[in-house]
Amino acid sequence: MPQRTGQAGAECLEELSGLTNLAKITSSPDPQAHYAELRTQWGSVAPIEIERKGDTVISGWLVLGHAENCHVMRDELQFSRNAANWRWNYDDLLPPGTAIGAFTPAEPRPTAFYHDDTERQRLREPLDDALEALDERAVRDQTTYMCEKVIERMGVSGAGDLVRAYCQPVGFLAMTTTLGFDLETGGRLMTDAATVVDGDGDEVAAALTRTLDTVMEHIGRVRQDGGQGLITHLVSHKNFAHDVEIATSAIVPVSGAAIFLTAWITQTLHQVLADRKFAARVSGGRITLDGTLDEVLWHRSPISHSPAPRYARNDVELGGRLIRKGDALVMGIAAANADPAAHTDDQRDKIDNRSHLSWGTGPHACPAPRLARLIARTAVDHLLRHMDITLRVPDGGLPWASSPWVRHPTQLPVTWHRAADHGAIG
Prior knowledge:
Mean pLDDT: 89
Order of helices and strands: HHEEHEHHHHEHHHHHHHEEEEHHEE
Shape: globular
CATH class: Mainly Alpha
Organism: Promicromonospora vindobonensis
Helix content: 40-55%
Region (Disordered): 340-362
Structural class: alpha+beta
Number of helices: 16
Number of domains: 1
Strand order of the largest sheet: 1-2-8-5-3
Number of strands: 10
Radius of gyration: 21 Å
């Protein structure tokens, strides 16, 4: 049990011990039980352990409340995305080789992901413009082609891990193809992205360096030979000062494909395959495919905790807690989506309700929700349309990702065989 010091609501993070580890929450069979326990003890903002390196505990605040998450995400004047404002960085407290250190450099990388205010606007605009210029029909056709190739590789029938066989390659390669990479390069990026999600600090740093090098090489080829895809749009944008800005901006959707799309597709298929009542609602047309995807975003959010903390610029009160200048705040997406204060007993309030925070909100909201939904919808629909799949849950249950940020089964043991066309889900 964490030990408190000082007056209620004014705990100093560095003086607390026994904190719950983020990865322990995401990898547990019941994360909501952890959130409920933290709410009972601390309210809507709770101290947590982000990472442990040797004897050093890197701590922060986990924002559990829906309203509190919205407030922090929307107020970049008070809560910065720039990790130079994190006390662990400016007081040089981080041990070498931490995973969080690789994600949150004291010298922010030149992408909107790490900046606030006018610099964020300058770097975010090219990505928004490039996404707006994408031909969604072409993206859908590319994703369908990718699904067909992966299903063809699975064979007429077989048994294995659906995550490795389908969810990961379809989601990731569809996104990298949209960016303009060939399949071989997309495969290399997929390997490094998996390391970024779940590696230790040194592995994460090395994978990020390889990813940057790969994207920089691609930018050079586009400049010389031209090309298609989202990166081609970025290369010609007037806002960028140099190619490193283009590359680091392109890495955001690459990482998003690794962290978000694979998990979203996996969680959706797990929901349909594991829950017979839910599957009956889907097959019976009582819930559309988009409704199915939203159900997952609400109740099984692929992003449990945002991998981009905010940092308090000054002492501020949030949820009855004193957040001190330089403290890190982790956005508790899955906790916020389940916050009892954000729900009513009226079932009509749940119809087409997309006020969940799986996309974030405010100036740093996900730039590509339409693109991600298009790829995920196509991937799930195509598999269920063309394959009969049976989930084989082992006696010990399914293993869950050990990442502090993302939640999905790392394996879905299944048997499959090619089916007659069932028709698209509504």
